[in-house]
Design goal:
- This protein has a single domain, classed as 3-Layer(aba) Sandwich (L-fuculose-1-phosphate Aldolase), CATH 3.40.225.10.
- The strands form two sheets. It has a seven-stranded mixed sheet, with helices on both faces. A two-stranded antiparallel ribbon has the order 3-4.
- About 35% of the residues are buried.
- It is globular.
- It is built from seven helices and nine strands.
- It is of the alpha+beta class.
């Protein structure tokens, strides 16, 4: 194991500690569960991306990593990160989380307030020939996210659901500590917002 891999494991584990202490994030974990991913500087395949084996789930109301960080443990998020890095190589980490119409509307305003780039992928526009091939959707999806963001890599984006696909949101950043801090702040802010709406 080289120095980069040791550093990556340390950062991902510290980021996971933050997430596992954030009760509010538990309500943002989708049915397919979340994953926190971190790509090597020259990542080309999923084996170059460190992720949580078994993803992040909910145990007794708290986020919990199902397994240990492992290179190659993610398919979907790893491929997404690799595609997005073709547009912005500074993006090395990301996390996926839930999407609902209410959350989506709030996210757009949340990003605007922070001057974060936000975009939406409309899965209804996905060509049939891409849908028909397993794993072929990712370059199209990331391309759509970047196109909708004016050619830039978005900080947060989400995809609308397709048949048999749960709609999810994604937040990306330079490393997992940045991503963990931002997703926990987001989760707490959204929780607080929902509480004010319910009063």
């Amino acid at each position: 194991m080289d120095d980069e891999m040791i550093d990556m494991r340390g950062r991902l584990c510290l980021a996971l500690d933050q997430i596992e202490e954030c009760r509010e994030f538990a309500s943002l974990i989708p049915e397919v569960r979340s994953n926190l991913v971190y790509a090597k500087k020259g990542a080309r395949t999923r084996d170059d991306v460190l992720a949580v084996d078994g993803r992040i789930t909910v145990v007794q109301g708290m986020p919990r990593a199902a397994g240990k960080p492992r290179f190659g443990a993610s398919s979907h998020m790893a491929r997404l990160l690799i595609e997005l890095r073709k547009v912005d190589p500074s993006v090395r980490a990301g996390i996926d989380f839930a999407n609902t119409p209410h959350l989506a509307a709030w996210l757009e305003e949340y990003c605007r307030e922070r001057d974060w780039i936000f975009s939406v992928i409309d899965r209804r526009g996905e060509p049939d020939e891409i849908k028909a091939v397993e794993g072929a959707s990712m370059p199209w999806k990331v391309g759509e996210a970047v196109r909708a963001a004016g050619g830039r890599a978005p900080k947060i984006f989400y995809e609308t659901g397709a048949v048999g696909k749960e709609p999810v949101s994604v937040l990306v950043g330079r490393d997992p500590l940045e991503v963990a801090g931002q997703i926990c702040t987001l989760a707490r802010d959204y929780h607080e917002y929902r509480q004010t709406q319910d009063r």
